[in-house]
Design brief:
Archaeosine Trna-guanine Transglycosylase, Chain: A, domain 4, 11 helices, single chain, Rossmann fold, 390 residues, 19 strands, 28% strand, six-stranded mixed beta sheet
Length: 390
Amino acid sequence: MTPSIFLKPGREKSVLNFHPWVFSGAIARVSGSPAAGDEVRVCDYQERFLARGFFNPDSQIRVRLLAFSDTPLDSTFFEKGLRRAISLRDSILSPQTNACRLIHAEGDGLSGLIVDRYAEVLVAQFNARGMYLRREEIGKILLDITGARHLIDRSDAKALAAEGLSAAAKEPAGDLPQRIEILENGHQFEIDLLHGQKTGFFLDQRDNRRMIGELAGGKKLLNCFAYSGGFSVYAAATGSQTTSVDISKVAVEQARKNFALNGLDPAAHHFEAANVFDYLRHIEGDRYDIIVLDPPAFAQRKGDITKASRAYKDINRIAFQKVRENGLVLSCSCSSFISEDLFRKILFGAAKEAGRLVQILARPAQPPDHPVNIYHPEGEYLKTVLMRVL
């Protein structure tokens, strides 16, 4: 018999609103003896059924809800959910793109599971205990549905630690190469499948890269936190003169390779392995028509918000000072703890301190292969603002 979790009076509201997380403080009692990762039924204090999910006594998110009907979370359930998610990607991706996010955790109703596709390779993150314990079953279903040749487990160590797990990274077996070439909107990129950041590439910036490419023709572009040069490749392909700056020498060399992959001469562009804050501060005069700011998440925890806000304000203030008159700044934050409202206020403060008039031209959202569950607004993590600086 499936164990049951009973909520405290008044704590069922979020579940009735289909929010996928039940926190430890909401639970009154547990019936049965569920182990970490076991399937449980969630009921209100009057023992009325609400949802099913995976239990974890080692996490603040005590239950991750997956079904709001009394349906077993078995292979049939997962196959249906995975097929539903993958059908969305099949319907929205162009033939010029063979890399995307296939499964976006809560956005696809599968809390704790992220899967990215890079051509014939799937890279998965089983970032919740319930998903991690079922990774072989889920992996097999994914390979059967997609026809992909390989699946790599790159579960996030920090996420697993928060789930009470310690999982050593495993090198995949077989003939899988460490690197693979993908196609994105007709541009080629080489991906480090085993050691690249996140799952290998920042797929959530696909639409923003295309937008910058369309705006950058013939202009001078500075790509900050450039990683493997995605924004720069798009811009250079339309005749832009680009500068790519990243603190990682490995990433900078990968950016050079990606230029060459696309028939672009790396020698005609500038690549710099440097601290972006220091690099921007030492620019003399207004040198760039477009500046792209796509930093890593400055706020990893709620306690980082104040420090992260200062960093975002600093980097944007300098960019506003260094961009040419009527130039563009694309500013991004992937910190889930930095809300859209707070990010807007940070940009306001940065513009005021820079003494520049700033117009907001667009606020692009996550691309549709990174859907947001309307009942889980926390999933809208990527904030992007395109600004014109006068």
